[in-house]
Specification:
Elements lengths: L7 E6 L6 H11 L4 E6 L6 H5 L9 E5 L5 E5 L4 H13 L4 E4 L15 E2 L1 H8 L8 E6 L5 H9 L4 E6 L10 H9 L4 E4 L6 H11 L2 E4 H13 L2
Parallel strand pairs: 1-2, 1-5, 5-6, 7-8, 7-9, 9-10
Antiparallel strand pairs: 3-4
Helix pairs in contact: 1-8
């Protein structure tokens, strides 16, 4: 950044903002004095309103969390107009770069005067180069996301062993999926949701004895190259 002012990153959650849990673990990798401003696709909605966004067959499924800590599952199609409103809001507040803090795949329907970055695109262009194998392990929040995740990584040239584990559950429940990944013929695991924490990554690394990529810190390290003056 050449601007002498403090760099300002706009962060969009598909759930409700602020996602302090995510941003606090990203900050150390973003560079000095970066200001993060946030907006959420579900901001201003009550729980009962969000339940109407329930996925139906064929929908692209997303999972996130609300301000009160509850986890929610919904169809992407319902929040696309609200995501554009988030972009507009963050632009108005002076964001120099806008980041979706979600690893899902989004259609090319948004417009912005500022660069908009998607973790899915960053990871898909990088992760295949981190292993010589053609197969990787993928951890996702919900079993309804398995088929779309297999397809998503197939488009990046990778076969995937996909296991569901909600980032909004306790780490002590991770052992069953860790055993599946430990026994799989893979050497790299991707925790494919921004909701997974550094502590969860360390636990999964310990249990599987394999290399683990954590979405939130992986993307933050890349962003740091743009934001750190």
């Amino acid at each position: 950044m050449t601007d002498s002012k403090k760099p300002k990153l706009g962060a969009i959650t598909i759930g409700q903002s602020p996602r302090t849990d995510v941003v606090q673990e990203m900050l150390p990798f973003l560079g000095k004095d970066v200001e993060v401003i946030q907006a959420g696709a579900l901001d201003g909605l009550e729980y009962q309103e969000i339940l109407k966004f329930k996925p139906e067959e064929g929908d692209y499924v997303l999972v996130s969390t609300l301000r009160d800590g509850r986890s929610v599952k919904f169809a992407e199609k319902h929040i696309l107009p609200r995501l554009q409103l988030c972009i507009d809001k963050l632009e108005d507040e002076g964001a120099q770069i806008i980041l979706f803090i979600c690893t899902g795949t989004f259609p090319d329907v948004f417009h912005s005067k500022k660069p908009v970055l998607y973790p899915q695109k960053i990871m898909h262009s990088s992760v295949p180069n981190l292993t010589s194998a053609s197969k990787i392990g993928i951890v996702i929040p919900d079993k309804e996301q398995i088929a779309q995740t297999v397809l998503k990584w197939k488009e990046a040239g990778m076969d995937a062993v996909v296991v569901p584990f909600s980032p909004y559950t306790g780490e002590d429940e991770m052992e069953p999926i860790a055993n599946v990944l430990k026994d799989a013929d893979i050497d790299l695991i991707v925790m494919d949701c921004i909701g997974y924490t550094l502590s969860m990554k360390r636990q999964l690394t310990r249990l599987t004895e394999k290399s683990v990529v954590l979405a939130r810190t992986f993307v933050a390290r890349v962003l740091g190259e743009l934001l750190d003056d």
